Each structure stands twice: as C-alpha cells, then as structure tokens.
Amino acid sequence: MSELNLPVLDLSLLDEGPDAAARFRDDLRAATHDVGFFYLTGTGVGAELEARLLQAAKDFFALPEAEKLSIENVTSPHFRGYTRVGGERTQGRVDWREQIDIGPERAAITGGPGYNRLIGPNLWPGAQPELKDVVTEWHDHLTGVARKLLRAWALALGAEEQYFDRHFGDPQTLIKIVRYPGKDDPTPQQGVGAHKDSGVLTLLWVEPGKGGLQVERDGEWVDAPPVPGAFVVNIGELLEYATQGYLRATNHRVISPRFPDERISVPFFFNPALDARLPIIELPAELAAEARGVEDDPTNPIHATYGENALKSRLRAHPDVAERWHPDLLAARAAS
Predict the structure, then answer these.
(1) Which of 10, 103, 105, 289 has the least CB density, counted as fewest CB within 10 Å?
(2) Pairing relation of β-strands 37-41 and 81-83?
C-alpha cells in the first residue's frame, strides 16, 4: 500500500480491544488533520452487495433515455432523480457525468427556511424496481459505518463518544449513483470539477479498477485510485467549521475516463438534519493550538446550519432546477 497517496485505515480495529481502537482513533485524527481524505477498509460491506449495487447502476444507465428522463430532476423541486450528462455544474463549468440522486424518503413540506425545500420524495425508475431495494440496503449499512466513524472521531477530538449523535438530529443523507462516460478529447475533461463537500462525512465507493479521482495535497493534484474492498472517505466543510480548521475539508475532482471506457461511482453523504447546527467543539489545548481556522472564501461561505450549506450547494450545482422551482431563493441570494 506504500504507493498510495492517501492513508489506509481499518475500521475493524475498533472491535479488537482498547489498544487497537486507540490506534485507529489516532490514525483517524491524523489523517483528517493532515490530508482530509483516507481509504477505509474493514467496513463489513461484502463483495456480493458491491456487485449487486454495481449491476443495478449499470442497468439503470442502460435504460432507454425516455425511461431515465421520466424521472429527470428538473421535475423535482427537491433536486431528486436523474441528471443527464452535462446537467450539473461545479464552479460554473459543466460536469461530464450522468447520475441519479436519492435522499431520505419523506413527504414534502411547505414554509419555513429555504432549505426545507430539499425535503421530499425520491423519483424511482418504474422500469427497475430492484434499484430501490439495493439502494436501501446500501444506505442502511453505510449509515451504521458512518455512525461508528463519527463516534470514533468524537473521542479522537477529546469529546464524549455520543457528541455527534446528540447534535445530528435525523440525519440528512444523499446517495448519488454516477456514471462518467468516456471522452476522446485530447485534454482531460471535467468529470466533476474541484470542490469541497458541504456537509460532514462522505463515503465513496468506486467501481474496481477505475481511476480518475484526484485529491489536492500541498497545492498539487494526486491520484486516489480505488483500493479493493475499501471506501474513499473525506470530511466536509461542516466538520472543518466545528473544529475551527483543525480538520480541513479538502478539494477533490474527477477526471473523465478515456473513451470507450466509463466509470461508475457511488458517493454516500452522511450529514446532520437540515436544521442542525454543529457547535464548535472544545478541543484539548494541544489540538486547539493546531487549529488553522476556517478557510475564508467569500464566494463559498461555510454556514453553521447544515441546511444552509446543502441549499447553497444544490442551487449552484443544478441551476435549471433552481430557476424552475426556486426563483425567489435565487433572487434573494443575488440581492444579498
């Protein structure tokens, strides 16, 4: 593993006694203080579930275009459903990918803060009922992994083990099933542009053998190829805020594969309830001394309330959905 550009952590160490668990927490804290990204093994996700998820993804993207467009996200005020190639943007530039976005299955609500508009039902393809079953199983397993990680993080940061559980409320999750089609342009294309995730924690599964993910380290882009049996894990802006920069959200991007190749990936975002505010963690003195402060980017402010971060991200990424369903929110942002 020495040739990898990111550290490798084994979650199963948390179940191998106090010493092994303490080593894992130390490595977890160091990885996310120094890099913000790491590989995670020992999650208990079996090869059979991975294979079913990959097949379901391939089957979805192989559906006739009319079937996919029947659940296109421009029909959802909650930013759910299918996004065609070129339908999402990062930093104003088109991302060369297609995807389906799946969040918590809830009834839509009216009124309240703008981020309440992110709450609502999913759009599922009628021609592929099995997709919902495998995504639900994936969601439930990764929710357990995420909770276990956050409890380890809390202890590693000098807080009580249930710190994040107490402040999360009903988690706001998001699963994206993404296909990056191959490009034959002479220069690399933007599969997804450089960005930081807006929440707390991301668990990324990548189709075996398919590269393209790059992470920014010390001002340089380094490759993060998939590792068999491992997830790529990174923290988001809200955890940077809660630790006042002791942990740092890191820029990352995806370069499109070369035609005729393609790449499937499935990021799972585990975040607090939309109305949750993560308070600033009172770090031990030796850790607080190494906190770098929240990165100041006037074009990308980090909000304490998760819903504000999530809404900011969705309005930017899907301007067509925003213009159709939320012109008042766009006008309010333009006036502020």
Answers:
(1) 289
(2) unpaired
Strand partners, 41: 10
User: Are 186 and 101 a contacting pair, CB within 8 Å?
Assistant: no
Q: Is the CB of residue 263 less than 8 Å from the CB of residue 206?
A: yes
Name the packing angle between helices 18-34 and 130-156 (round to 10°): 100
Task: Check whether 4 has a pLDDT greater than 80.
Answer: no
Angle between helices 47-61 and 130-156 (to 10 degrees): 130
pLDDT (0 to 100) of residue 90: 73
Q: Are 57 and 134 in contact (CB under 8 A)?
A: no
- Give Cβ neighbours of residue 134 (< 8 Å, ≥ 6 apart): 49, 52, 53, 56
**Whole-prediction pTM:** 0.94
How far is residue 122 CA from its own chain's centroid?
18
Give the other-Cβ count within 10 Å of 14's Cβ: 19
Nearest one of 208, 187, 239 to 36, comparing CA atoms? 239
State the average pLDDT over residues 261-273: 95
Least confident of 23-37, 104-118, 187-201: 187-201
Measure CA of the first residue to CA of the last residue in the chain; give whole Å: 48
Q: Assess contact for 274 and 168: CB atoms under 8 A.
A: no
Q: Which CATH class is domain 8-335?
A: mainly beta
DSSP string, 127-176: T-THHHHHHHHHHHHHHHHHHHHHHHHHHHTTS-TTHHHHHH-S-EEEEE
